[in-house]
UniProtKB/TrEMBL annotation:
<dbReference type="InterPro" id="IPR013096">
    <property type="entry name" value="Cupin_2"/>
</dbReference>
<feature type="region of interest" description="Disordered">
    <location>
        <begin position="105"/>
        <end position="129"/>
    </location>
</feature>
<protein>
    <recommendedName>
        <fullName>Cupin type-2 domain-containing protein</fullName>
    </recommendedName>
</protein>
<dbReference type="InterPro" id="IPR052538">
    <property type="entry name" value="Flavonoid_dioxygenase-like"/>
</dbReference>
<dbReference type="InterPro" id="IPR014710">
    <property type="entry name" value="RmlC-like_jellyroll"/>
</dbReference>
<feature type="compositionally biased region" description="Basic and acidic residues">
    <location>
        <begin position="105"/>
        <end position="115"/>
    </location>
</feature>
<dbReference type="Pfam" id="PF07883">
    <property type="entry name" value="Cupin_2"/>
</dbReference>
<feature type="domain" description="Cupin type-2">
    <location>
        <begin position="30"/>
        <end position="98"/>
    </location>
</feature>
<dbReference type="InterPro" id="IPR011051">
    <property type="entry name" value="RmlC_Cupin_sf"/>
</dbReference>
């Protein structure tokens, strides 16, 4: 059995992206977006559910904008353009579930720049299960 005290795990992770668990149909990832940072505008071919643990930010999904904070949850259906921006002075911390998995199993990306580079180099591919 995998068990996480997810808010604590997310709060303690300094990494931009850390894959905690990868299954056949879903993947659990924690993210920490620094002050003035963002995930970056992107489109996935998988569904994504994001739950915010701490900090404040802005969600942009298919051109619609909403403020987000601790306790908020945002659903991004596959194929939708989206971005999440930190609008506060503290890190914006969240966990997200992808269905099916989106990133390499066990991936840890310390910064957005590292995450972007590894994706461009094809080194952050979801496992084929």
């Amino acid at each position: 059995m995998e068990h996480f005290t997810i808010a604590t795990v997310a709060e303690q992770s300094p990494d931009f992206r850390r894959v905690l668990w990868t299954g056949k149909h879903t993947q659990l990832v924690v993210m920490t977006i620094p002050a003035d940072g963002e995930i970056g505008e992107e489109v996935h071919e998988v569904d994504q559910i994001l739950t915010f643990v701490s900090g404040v930010g802005k969600a942009v999904v298919s051109g619609q904008e909403r403020q987000v904070q601790q306790g908020d949850l945002v659903v991004v259906p596959a194929g939708r353009k989206h971005n999440f921006l930190n609008t506060g002075p503290n890190p914006l911390v969240l966990y997200t579930v992808y269905g099916p998995p989106e990133h390499a199993e066990g991936a840890v990306h310390k910064t957005k720049e590292e995450a972007d580079r590894l994706e461009e180099e094809g080194k952050d591919e979801a496992p084929q299960k």
